[in-house]
Amino acid sequence: MRTVCSISGACARVLAALAVTLTACGDDAGTTATATAGTPTTAPTTLPPLTAGTTDDTAGTTDPGTATATETGGPTTSTGPAPTTSTGNDSSGIKLDLGQPDFPSDPTADTDAAKGCTAVDLLFVIDNSASMGKHQEDLSAVFPDFVDAIIAALPPGTDLHVGMTTTSFYDGSCSESTVNCVSQSSEQQILQHYVAPPATTSENGGQGRLFEWQGQHYFSLNTDDDPAALKAWFTAAATAAGETGCSFEMPAAAAGWAADPATAPTNAGFIRDAGAVLVVFVLTDEPDKSPEPVSQWVDKLVAAKQECGGINCILASGLVPSFCYDNPGDSTLKTFLESFSAPPFTGNIDGDPSDYAMVVGDALAGVIQEKCEEIEPPG
Questions:
Q1: Residue 208 lies in a domain
Q2: pLDDT in tens, 97-125
Q3: What's the predicted TM-score (pTM) here?
Q4: What CATH number should be reported for the domain holding residue 315?
Q5: Per the domain annotation, does 179 fall within a domain?
Q6: Does residue 1 form part of some domain?
Q7: Which of 53, 59, 231, 232 has the least CB density, counted as fewest CB within 10 Å?
Q8: How far apart are CA 5 and CA 362, in angstroms?
């Protein structure tokens, strides 16, 4: 069975959390959970459910028993009927595949010089619509520990690229609402707020173009080097994305366009092909309104990884709204994240911020490490 981390200290922490979880499960009327290979399951620690009945003038509102969100470039309000909640299986927690082989005890051991990736490209797709400021801050807070974890998990000398794009494809008036995680805008209205490259809205980080921060569209780091500059760059860039983006959030489209030649003027050199793992991480608190079909965004990413092995070289992860992610009425984001070489590693964006580290931390670093070991180096 695959563990959720590859670093001894982290494993101890996760195993301790698992012990607590299993103890709690003993009170659940004999319910038994079975982990099946290749199927996302609930992780040792789950994030808390969404909090109802709170109001925040700057980050939107949630009304008890309702699930209609309205965005106008400002606060979000909830006014409609709530989706049905399952009591037998909590889907709001962190999910990961537990059915693969264990990680090596020494990730730096040179057991086979002919195998293993030489590079990892981390693409963060960050929602920059209203209500996202706190979530961006929470991601920034855990990012430095994630950098330490991934450097420890990967072989020495691995080359990292870290970049981010936003979910916005329109610079102008955006007024959009959802009911039970389904947009109330018509397909025509959604397309009116979708400006595809090579046309430009001139938004920094919009339309799949990489967000420029401190003169850089992405940060490059060798795992042998001091990561302090990378940590400072990303933690500032993630919050600088802000909350001014269009409320027609399109994370799947943003990820796809990030790999398309149409965005090369800002993105050239970010995604490597042969010998490189590509990780797509989505941070959003709203349903995905990317134009259908979802396969077109997957195909753009796969086309950029042909020498490496296509879809087998791509991983997906994210902090997403669990009440929409598992809702049949909003399948776009889930379909996208589940289209790649392994089950996506996801958590609830509205959970306790301290639990963000369970998604962006040792466990995700371990998943990337395992994928790196499967990939043939270039040449």
A1: yes
A2: 433 334 444 544 444 445 689 999 999 99
A3: 0.73
A4: 3.40.50.410
A5: yes
A6: no
A7: 53
A8: 5
Contacts of 358-361 spanning 24+ positions with Cβ under 8 A: 358/43, 358/45, 358/47, 358/94, 359/94, 359/317, 359/318, 359/319, 360/139, 360/142, 360/143, 360/145, 360/146, 360/281, 360/319, 361/10, 361/142, 361/145, 361/146, 361/149
**pLDDT tens per residue, range 147-166:** 999 999 999 999 999 999 99
Cis peptide before 293 (omega within 30 of 0): yes
Range of the domain at 56: 8-82+90-374
Chain-centre distance for alpha carbon 257: 16
* Assigned domain for 379 exists: no
Tokens (6 digits) for 59: 């980050």
